[in-house]
Design a protein that fits this description.
Layout: E1 2-7, H1 20-27, E2 32-37, E3 51-53, E4 61-63, H2 65-78, E5 83-93, H3 96-102, E6 107-112, H4 120-125, E7 129-132, H5 142-153, E8 186-187, E9 190-191, H6 201-219, H7 221-227
Parallel strand pairs: 1-2, 1-6, 5-6, 5-7
Antiparallel strand pairs: 3-4, 8-9
Helix pairs in contact: 6-7
Length: about 230
């Protein structure tokens, strides 16, 4: 899989994309992540400007269409992309289903907005999908892009040490994950549930499902309504 990220601030993505599971997946050759500075495609070779004032009376600077068009055009000449994604607060709310779908793609481009946003013609003509990580606004699309990339990469076969681990994550089956414990079995008088020490896999699986269902009903009842 290859993920190309277009941004004005590539340094914001350096640490998230070069540590932990993502780094191991890259080292194994499971994913190639290339971060591009949009200023590379600026026609202003002195100041590398890529923004301008908005038409009308809107406040704030807007990312220009030309550098982004040229960047996407150049990338598309090199390979076929399944999707061009724009990180936007008014896009589809990112969830595990979207992460699962994107993890099956071969090549994707993620565009990070900045300033007041991007020229709307970019969204009309160059973008296949808009994704939001929540109903709030942050400085730019870099951190949301890192979140989406992390969620995708950890699903790639071989990315995790235990390939079954991702299948038991919260949201994979429409439920929150059940409680998990580790050694010691008792600490400060607080004990691990006896069922987890029994070694009876069938009963443990039943207990885990009951706990997951109870936690979802209590903490995220909206998930159960969505699945009905």
């Amino acid at each position: 899989m290859r993920i190309d990220i277009l941004t004005l601030l590539p340094e914001l993505l350096d640490s998230p994309l070069n540590n932990s599971i993502i780094k191991r997946a890259k080292d194994k050759g499971l994913v190639e992540i290339v971060v591009h500075n949009i200023r590379k495609w600026s026609k202003d070779k002195r100041h590398f400007r890529v923004d301008d004032y908005a038409f009308g009376f809107s406040a704030g600077m807007v990312m220009q269409i030309e550098p982004i068009f040229l960047a996407i055009e150049e990338l598309k000449r090199e390979r076929l992309y399944d999707e061009v994604i724009f990180m936007s607060p008014d896009g589809d709310l990112f969830d595990q289903k979207i992460a699962n779908t994107l993890s099956l793609k071969e090549n994707i481009i993620i565009l990070c907005g900045h300033y007041k946003g991007v020229d709307y013609r970019i969204r009309q003509h160059l973008i296949d999908r808009e994704i939001s990580i929540g109903n709030y606004v942050i400085t730019g699309g870099e951190l949301p892009a890192a979140i989406v990339t992390d969620a995708i990469v950890r699903l790639l076969p071989g990315a995790l040490g235990d390939e079954q681990s991702a299948l038991t994550d919260s949201f994979q089956d429409g439920l929150l994950a059940p409680p998990i414990y580790t050694r010691p079995a008792e600490y400060n008088g607080w004990k691990v549930p006896e069922i987890l020490l029994s070694g009876n896999e069938a009963k443990i699986r039943d207990w885990e499902y009951e706990q997951a269902l109870e936690r979802t009903k209590r903490l995220r009842p909206d998930m159960l309504r969505e699945n009905n």
